[in-house]
Amino acid sequence: MTYIGRRGLLAGAAGALAATAVVGLGAEASAAPRAAPAPEPAHPRRAGTPEFRGMWIATVQNVDWPSEAGLSARRQRDELTAFLDAAVERRLNTVMLQVRPAADALWPSPHEPWSQWLSGTQGRDPGWDPLGVAVAEAHRRGLELHAWFNPYRVANHADPGRLVASHPARRNPGWLVAYGGKLYYNPGLPDVRAFVQRAMLDAVSRYAVDGVHWDDYFYPYPVSGERFDDDAAYERYGGSFDTRADWRRDNIDTLVREMSAEVRRIRPAARFGISPFGVWRGDDVDPRGSRTRAGVSTYDDLYADTRKWVKEGLLDYIVPQAYWHIGHPTADYAAIVPWWAETVRGTGVDLYVGEALYRCDAESPTKAWRDPAELSRHLTFARKHPEVRGHSYFSAKYVVADPNGAMDRVVADHYRAAAPPR
């Protein structure tokens, strides 16, 4: 089975796992007033970081947090800090919190509306500052907090009229492309590129985040029988390129290059990292590619030249989503990890491996994922490659619930002592 990024998890809201995995922390976790921006972390940017042990907290469609929209500010904060406590208990040291899931915000942004995944209504103030509290509470626990943004996703539906009236997409309808039943900002428009950076950098400038993090969503994953209609933008801006694909890749390259420079200028201690789909290209179409036949690649389908970003040093770290088991017939974990290790070698870009903890389930149709030792074997294999400097787990509710004991096994086998953040 070919797994396409995280999109299979986003079709439904967080279920009973999220509802049962998070508990309140009592009076000390009561809802706080809006937090003032925290001071800059004391540590400088430096090479040779300690082992990275991360987890993603997804907020889109309430995948991880909040467990449902419309909870009180106190309950939201209790759930969030419980996830941070779970990270400490599992001897992790980094949390990637999704703070701009769909052209919205989990902080009081002057550019975009409050996220609907907080209050249940886009634009409604939830009564507290989740990003400000998350940074402060993570640092209080000795955790790094990386702000996870999605640059181009606007909505998981295709009706602009459902967006709050003040939404930038309502004011600039020419920025939108409807595709696959969803709305996206058009990456080919310079005004879009400038705006999405401004929206993200507002958070970077105001909060002492330890990292700026993107996942695998650039141009959208292919939808059979549909085309992404960027004809007008291509006609206006793509004339100097041999193909539309080259122009699209350049659009994403430019976004990455500009954002990298701005993060380093605005908050030099923060690190810029991306977690792409695990396959850049297969070696059947490019001799530089991996021994995979995944059916999708970042280069050809998402127009994201992830290898180039590493080779040009545009990133501080990369977390390829190696979401397949060892021995997978078309996308073997044991082929993907060595390819990435070779790719980062000598670049100064840190390599962390994204791990599919959500697949570890005693009821999985795949035998490998039913085995609680599968994920531990991943870490054992990856550590044969010195370029691999850590791992991150998708997602937080599975770090807590651990349906088949795979996370317990990883901690027992590999995380016997705490690892400090950078």
Structure notes:
By secondary structure, the chain is of the alpha/beta class. The protein has a single domain, classed as TIM Barrel, CATH 3.20.20.80. 33% of the residues lie in helices and 12% in strands. The strands form two sheets. An eight-stranded parallel β-barrel has the order 1-2-3-7-8-9-10-11, surrounded by six helices. Strand 5 and strand 6 (182-185) form a beta hairpin. Helix 13 (374-382) packs parallel to helix 15 (406-414). The chain is globular and about 55 Å long. Residues 1-47 have low confidence and may be disordered.
Task: State the gist of this model.
33% of the residues lie in helices and 12% in strands. The chain is α/β, with parallel strands linked by helices and 422 residues long.
Which tags fit this structure?
disordered N terminus; 33% helix; 422 residues; 3-stranded antiparallel beta sheet; TIM Barrel; alpha/beta; single chain
Layout of SSEs?
Elements: H1 16-21, E1 52-57, H2 73-89, E2 94-100, H3 116-119, H4 130-140, E3 144-149, E4 153-155, H5 168-171, E5 176-179, E6 182-185, H6 190-206, E7 211-214, H7 231-237, H8 244-266, E8 271-274, H9 298-302, H10 306-311, E9 317-318, H11 333-344, E10 350-355, H12 367-370, H13 374-382, E11 388-393, H14 396-401, H15 406-414
Parallel strand pairs: 1-2, 1-11, 2-3, 3-7, 7-8, 8-9, 9-10, 10-11
Antiparallel strand pairs: 4-6, 5-6
